[in-house]
Prior knowledge:
Elements: H1 7-23, H2 28-34, H3 41-47, H4 66-79, H5 81-91, H6 96-101, H7 104-116, E1 121-124, E2 140-144, E3 147-158, E4 165-171, E5 181-187, E6 193-198, E7 209-220, H8 232-267, E8 270-271, E9 274-275, H9 280-308, H10 314-339, H11 349-359, H12 367-377
Parallel strand pairs: 1-4
Antiparallel strand pairs: 2-3, 3-7, 4-5, 6-7, 8-9
Helix pairs in contact: 1-4, 4-5, 4-8, 8-9, 8-10, 8-11, 9-10, 10-11, 10-12
Amino acid sequence: MFFELNDEQKGFQKRAREVYEREVSPLVEEYERKETFPASLFRTLGKEHLLCLRCPKEYGGPGLDKISECISTEELNRICVGIGAGVMVQGGLATDPILHFGSEDLKWGYLSPAVRGEKIGAFALTEPDAGSDASGIRTTAVKQGDEYRINGSKTFITNGTICDFVTVVAYTDPAKRGIGINLFVVEREDTGFSVIKKLEKLGNHSSDTAELAFDDCLIPKGRMLGGEEGGGLEQLEETLKSGRITYGARSTGVGQATFEAVLSYVKGSVRHGEPLKRSQAIRFILAEMAMSIEAMRYLTYRGAWLFDQGMATMKDASIVKLFCTESLQKIVQKAMAIQKNAGLMMENPVQRYLRDARLFKFTEGTSEIHHLLIARELGL
Length: 380
């Protein structure tokens, strides 16, 4: 069983942390304030071979395993969740379906440039009336000769205003609920594609999030993934498993950053004339936070190991996502309780961690959905 990182993974962890500290840390305050994503960072991380980590070497990728991807994700989200979101989508939802189901032309046309950071990807599934229930989408793709005509709207799309291409989920046969879904690659310059608006959010400020429209958007039939109509939800299964495990690493990174911040605060603070670190109540809270983070990390790595072995089920992925994101809520709440008014100050990163962490309960399936998925796998 997997219990410890090997030497190669430890070396990668050290390198990833050094790159993110050097290249990402100096950007955080500026782009959180601007509420934009530093798009030039994609090329920087591409040169550092830190994009699309599981992409095979034959397409220019690093060809690493899921455990290494989780290592990188934890290190990046420890620094900034908003920036981490854009990088996560680039290497996951936007490109994984192309890797597994796209033609060679699509792989070389979109996957390889994404690895280098030369093209930015987005993924469009969620709609105003369809989120966790993917089969409830209304976007359609109708075949007309050698093209497909796409109509519909998508919302909460990460990288939406800066993307060069979007992997879009649409019905080719709306009469077949769930079954009649396909995935398509839409380019930014395609006629009929437009960004309706950029969305403002409570947290994740440096993550670019948008609402998109497809109005008689014509694309070549060769940009449909899979080669035949139907089967889109099944194509997404491995990607969704992977993404939910990734959220364990995201949560662990934010939890670690929160713990480090509050531990430093406790060590340097005096309350009621006594060093705060002498308080037994505070020491117990910090011990529980440290324990939770270790549990989150090991559960995430276990899920990643199972994924690498081809053994991970959707239940495994849901357990990682649900446990880690819900544990994170408790960690940030405890951190705010310890710091009290100090935690509310904008110069204190803990207030950002609190806002950013809240989103994790809803993306990649709500906590309620994951309770249902796990219960279903238990035969309930």
